[in-house]
């Protein structure tokens, strides 16, 4: 479901820092995370990161950016013969709730009212034969059919299925018999007893997407399975330190804190108190740790200990949110993105950024081939194999005598910076790529690899850092990267969510300048999750460095 309203709330966190000679310096830190559906950006202390930006979501919304709408649906379909009512939610232009009956074996029909023994279709390969539990066959009114492959589940294990996943569907033959026909199977098959093959109905998210089969891995009391075939096992990871304030430790060792905007906390939830707000928050404010988090709209700004004070922006903000000075003066805080920013008293005008445009000049003209970054009025200096150029106007020049060979560049101090494959005063000696563990030589650095259980680091990719595998499984070709899902995109939209199970249309406010592409609401360098690489900006050329994840 694509959010129709995007609210960017900018909060300023005033931090007092004691500098040299006991001087106290006041540092203002802007909270600029883009929160959707009326969510509010909040700065909070973090034991690892210092300060963390999170979105505090209004009632019925959740997710990292408040992009998810939490539906409460009563499944009241009158299933017969021991059938179980389940709810499937489809998100596209509209959110559709479909209630179906999961029928016992040999029972079929809309409410499991028909008894007809099933026959295994000949189209199912013997290498992916289905072993179906008595409670897994379900029926719907569609004619497309799919089947669970290797769905034998241990009595002590459970599995998590996305609401847009249909495990099995039925079709009726010309003789009137109901049979199970496989149209999408898991290849290679799921490991028996450790996961089941289910079909993700992507075509219900967007017409151009295709349905995919994947192995939905199981959990047990002591751990969980992961991998494309659910062939690997990971013991539950203990949260250290233990979660506080009612937080729940997940199987991957993260604290799921009560009252937080995105659910998870890299710490122990100690900064999120479960104390209620007294008096209660007004005007749509949300209570977080006993403190009301007030919201702003394009017309109104709320403040006060329980969001009881209201200031109105007249006229309303076009591309921004209403803010206030004190209790009477108001102004519009304008939105911005990677392509430009809105300006004007009501944020009605959009000004695009310009990058590396030789026709644009800075206040002080750039020298020695430097280009002006007009959006910040600074010169970008170019250096090469023979000279290192620096300074505010690129006027300071250092020379590397003899020049730097084989891709090396002249660095500060007239010293050659060699690529990983070469060494010597002028990078003249070939030594080969020293990067270990399938690392890739990328100029002066090693591009280290990662997998579902961690990543390699260090100057030569010689150090492995463990990170628990993601659970539940990451779908649609996404990658598990440092316990977070990296989801793919296409020309129309992008996958998102903890499992990459959701799909939304790109929504950049203006066209992206090449080579940048629009992903979500931002212009960014292209990346390919399936092949595990992204492009990064170089000093002289945008998106020119290929980096493997």
UniProtKB/TrEMBL annotation:
PROSITE patterns: EGF_1, EGF_3. One of its GO terms (cellular component) is extracellular region. Gene3D superfamilies: Laminin. Residues 27-67, 71-113, 235-270, 358-395, 396-428 form the EGF-like domain. InterPro entries: Dev_Signal_Modulators, EGF. GO terms for molecular function: signaling receptor binding. It comes from the Eukaryota. Disulfide bonds join 31-41, 57-66, 75-85, 103-112, 239-249, 362-372, 400-410, 418-427. Residues 123-171 are annotated as: Disordered. Residues 1-22 form the signal peptide. Keywords: Disulfide bond, EGF-like domain, Signal. This is EGF-like domain-containing protein.
């Amino acid at each position: 479901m694509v959010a129709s309203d995007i609210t960017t709330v900018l909060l300023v966190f005033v931090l007092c820092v004691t500098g040299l000679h006991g001087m106290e310096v006041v540092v203002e830190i802007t909270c600029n995370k883009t929160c959707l559906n009326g969510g509010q950006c909040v700065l909070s202390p973090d034991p690892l990161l210092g300060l963390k930006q999170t979105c505090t979501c209004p009632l019925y919304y959740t997710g990292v950016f408040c992009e998810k709408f939490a539906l409460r649906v009563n499944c009241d379909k009158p299933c017969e013969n021991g059938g179980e009512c389940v709810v499937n939610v489809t998100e596209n232009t509209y959110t559709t709730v479909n209630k179906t009956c999961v029928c016992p074996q040999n029972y079929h029909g809309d409410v499991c009212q028909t008894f007809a023994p099933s026959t295994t279709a000949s189209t199912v390969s013997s290498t992916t034969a289905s072993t179906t539990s008595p409670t897994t066959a379900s029926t719907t009114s569609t004619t497309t059919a799919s089947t669970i492959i290797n769905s034998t589940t241990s009595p002590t294990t459970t599995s998590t299925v996305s609401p847009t996943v249909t495990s099995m569907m039925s079709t009726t033959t010309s003789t009137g018999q109901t049979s199970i026909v496989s149209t999408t199977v898991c290849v290679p098959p799921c490991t028996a007893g450790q996961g089941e093959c289910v079909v993700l109905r992507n075509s219900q998210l967007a017409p151009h997407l295709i349905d995919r089969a994947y192995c939905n891995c199981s959990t047990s009391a002591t751990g969980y399975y992961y991998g494309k075939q659910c062939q690997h096992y990971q013991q539950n990871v203990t949260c250290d330190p233990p979660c506080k304030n009612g937080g729940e430790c997940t199987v991957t060792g993260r604290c799921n804190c009560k009252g937080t905007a995105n659910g998870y906390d890299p710490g122990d939830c100690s900064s999120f108190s479960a104390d209620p707000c007294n008096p209660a928050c007004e005007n749509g404010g949300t209570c977080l740790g006993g403190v009301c988090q007030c919201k702003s709209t394009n017309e109104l700004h709320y403040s006060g200990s329980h969001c009881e004070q209201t200031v109105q922006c007249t006229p309303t903000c076009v591309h921004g949110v209403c803010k206030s000075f004190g209790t009477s003066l108001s102004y519009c805080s304008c939105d911005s993105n990677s392509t430009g920013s809105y300006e004007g008293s009501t944020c009605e005008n959009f000004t695009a950024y310009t990058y590396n445009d030789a026709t644009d000049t800075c206040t002080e003209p750039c020298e020695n081939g430097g280009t002006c970054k007009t959006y910040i009025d600074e010169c970008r200096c170019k250096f090469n194999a023979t000279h290192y150029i620096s300074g505010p106007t690129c006027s300071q020049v250092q020379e590397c005598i003899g020049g730097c060979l084989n891709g090396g560049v002249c660095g500060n101090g007239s010293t050659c910076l060699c690529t990983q494959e070469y060494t010597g005063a002028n990078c003249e000696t070939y030594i080969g790529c020293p990067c270990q563990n399938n690392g890739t030589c990328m100029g002066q650095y090693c591009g280290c690899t990662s997998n579902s259980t961690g990543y390699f680091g260090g100057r030569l990719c010689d150090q492995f850092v463990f990170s628990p595998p993601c659970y539940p499984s990451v779908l649609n070709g996404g990658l598990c990267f440092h316990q977070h899902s990296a989801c793919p995109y296409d020309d129309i939209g992008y996958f998102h969510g903890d499992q990459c199970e959701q799909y939304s249309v790109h929504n950049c406010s203006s066209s992206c300048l090449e080579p940048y592409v629009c992903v979500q609401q931002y212009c960014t360098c292209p990346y390919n999750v399936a092949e595990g690489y992204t492009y990064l900006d170089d000093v002289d050329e945008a998106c020119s460095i290929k980096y493997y994840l």
